[in-house]
Amino acid sequence: MKNIFRNTVKILALLFSLYFTANWILPQEKLSNTNRNKNLIENWRKWFKKFPPPKETIKLEMIASFPSNKASNNVFLWKPRDITLSPNGLIAVNDQKAKCIFLFNDTGKLLQVFGKPGQGPGEFSNPFILTFAHNSLVVADNGNMRLNFFDLKGQLIKEIKIFKPILSLALSGKGMIAYAPLRTKPDAPLIDILNPKGKVVRSFEQAKFGSPKKNWQIPNFIKIALTPQEELLIAYEHFPLVVKYSLSGELLAEYPIETPVMKAKEKINLKRVSGKDKGGLLPVLFSIYCGRNSFYLLNSFPRLEILEFDYRGNLLNFFFYEYTYELPDVYYADLVVKEEGEKLVQKTFYILKTNPTTEINIFKIKHRGV
Length: 370
Fold this sequence. Notes:
Strand order of the largest sheet: 18-19-20-21-1-24-23-22
Number of strands: 24
Shape: globular
CATH topology: Neuraminidase
CATH class: Mainly Beta
């Protein structure tokens, strides 16, 4: 029975990986070859013109990108999936296709590459998500169905067996593990909490979108992050909503995101979930990141937008960067923010771009106002 269960879980993980490839990677590769398609560009222009940045905005400028072939000895990202930032400024990237981890400093200098394909200790089958915790790097391998804990030199510390593919991951200061599993039935909770030994101690948050009969899984895909107070923030990928929970499962708050472009996407997605309109769901919240006193949300369409909120849900800043809509296949997938200083906090944004090139772009504040 255990072997049957393990095989079933692996099959589900494979199916999810195939879904992700078919719905995100392949269409983006197709767009790269046909980015002058008139209909696509026209649609991009309509969104771009209809939803300009608000008046009170902060414009970003790109100051660097990495890895650079010249600077990194021809190192390149093949299929990067996720980035994470350590307290001392190290940036880790998991490459889902190369099945390894890249470690950079905050200027983009490559420090180390570790991991390789396989099933043995420290090897990867599908390194899907990662996060820093204390002085270790934690990688969720959805192919080998385990959490791998590495030190900052890439040496394996320990492994924890998991029984569900993990879509988003966060660790508390006491070693509690919060994650969003791939759900296999409509009434499955969105969040599982593991103790440091890997035992599930509680589950909570039910699906909010779709229906139990259809469209119950994808509309409830989420990203999670932990605040400095170790409260759990849940951001819905296809709807403009952030929910706050305690790690004990107590609902603390809900923060609807009311920007015009996100509300427009929500309207379209609600119609598509209900069957009133055809088409796939539009991504809304691409990433969530928790800083010292605020959290950040990433939107990649029709321009790069970063919304900063305090932990009571009040919008503090609207950052944006406009790339040309003549290249409508630009896709930013993940975000981390380096905060420096006390009274006047200096922010550096590291954003993972997965199309048309695979790289990490570094952004700084350029000026306020459109």
